[in-house]
Amino acid sequence: MSASTPKTLPTSGPKSILDICHPLSAEESVRTPSPDVGNTTGSIGEKDLSLPNGTPVDTSSPASSSSLLNRLQLDDDLDGETRDLFVTVDDPKKHVSTMETYITYRVSTKTTRVEFDLPEYSFRRRYQDFDWLRIKLEETQPTHLIPPLPEKFVMKGVVDRFSEEFVEVRRKALDKFLKRVADHPVLSFNEHFNVFLSAKDLNAYKKQGLALLTKMGESVKYVTGGYKLRGRPLEFAAMGDYLDVFTQKLGTIDRIAQRIIKEQTEYLVELREYGPVYSSWAGFESSLQEPLEGVSGCVANCAGALEELTEDMNDDFLPVLKEYVLYIESMKTVLKKRDQVQAEYEGKLEAVAFRKEERTATPTDVEKCQDRAECFNADLKADWDRWQNNKRQDFRQLLTGTADKNIQYYEKCLAAWESIIPLLQDRQENTKTETS
């Protein structure tokens, strides 16, 4: 995080919400419907550098590897699919009343689907509305993997949930959640998703509750009577094993990344104290004033680059890790539901065998249960493949972006230090001239 004090969102107070212009509302005005990891171009290389004496710092290099993302083409992009539903989340605003304080986000929708009455919608939603949607998706689509939401609760005193930085990270996560649902071939047609996007007031729908569960949803709710599953099929057992290993790897990466950020933040504090020392020294050394001021400027530029690199890790790198930790939990939940349906099917088969009745055909209820199990397996495998494809894209973009930002950071530091070499060389030539 930035070493500076977090900025807070403007409050609505007595004003109308429409009259309040949030500083984030102008950002990312154009969005693509596909999930993204964040702004991968970085801002480190975009600022012009100069030393205190006005000498410009050139960060370009003939052999530079900057803008790596601009040259990398991903060969497994999902954008080849035909899209007829586009959703974005932006413009967070803070609302203050006598009862509570909360944040709303603007949800904008554009579509050509006949299920919608209008081609465009724009409504404000708060976090609990997103949470309601996800619960409804889980209830009505139990065979599918539901994308995760960012966690609702934060530790008080550790994170200010109304700070601009926190709200922006959450906005990105909510935007990604809706984009993943909108891109799903089944979830995007869910009636509750339609309501979330097109209804002016969700409260009436929330009070209705779940009027009718699908047959699959009802079957998943049933308790299997204590029947113990014989064992997952190998392909689903392999999924469970993969998720366990993936959880461990992400946990280790997250722990080390947190430590790196902590060390970078501490190093940044040292750099902020280190640079001014050279400036104060220059005041006592007229003959060395120019090179000392140059060193001070270099340290300041390096400190600024490090601060931006640390912010990028906090705002772009860590949230992706956290999202996939939550994704793993969602996938494990779906696997457990699949096991429940399989256990129900196996239990009915054993019950029929135990009765030892002569039957010319399989009982109807057993056949229906078998159909439900096969449907669950097919849906889960399709979502698994889609999730793996999304994961591959997300992490390739994340790691490439991380590499690009680190390259830009070191290029900026290198260019800053190289720029003071002429000052030192000029000083050396002047010294020779004076002594000759």
Folded structure, characterized:
- With 436 residues, the chain is mainly alpha-helical.
- Helices cover 56% and strands 8% of the residues.
- It is built from 10 helices and 5 strands.
- It has helices spanning 68-71, 127-140, 164-183, 191-198, 203-208, 215-221, 234-282, 289-355, 364-419, 421-435, and strands spanning 49-50, 56-57, 85-96, 101-111, 120-126.
- It has a 3-stranded antiparallel beta sheet with strand order 3-4-5. Strands 1-2 form a two-stranded antiparallel sheet.
- β4 (101-111) and β5 (120-126) form a beta hairpin.
- α7 runs antiparallel to α8.
- The longest helix is centred in the last third of the chain and has 67 residues, at 289-355.
- The chain is elongated and about 105 Å long.
- It starts with 48 loop residues before the first strand and ends with a helix.
Write a concise synopsis of the structure shown.
The chain is mainly alpha-helical. The chain has ten helices and five strands; from the N terminus they run ββαβββααααααααα.
> How many strand elements?
5
Largest sheet: 3 strands, antiparallel
Helical residues, percent: 55-70%
H/E series: EEHEEEHHHHHHHHH
Rg from alpha-carbon coordinates: 28 Å
Strand content: 5-15%
N→C terminal distance? 53 Å
Structural class: mainly alpha
Number of helices: 10
Shape: elongated
Mean pLDDT: 78
Uncertain stretches: 1-6, 10-47, 58-80, 210-226
Strand order of the largest sheet: 3-4-5
Task: Detail the topology: elements first, then pairings.
Elements: E1 49-50, E2 56-57, H1 68-71, E3 85-96, E4 101-111, E5 120-126, H2 127-140, H3 164-183, H4 191-198, H5 203-208, H6 215-221, H7 234-282, H8 289-355, H9 364-419, H10 421-435
Antiparallel strand pairs: 1-2, 3-4, 4-5
Helix pairs in contact: 7-8, 8-9
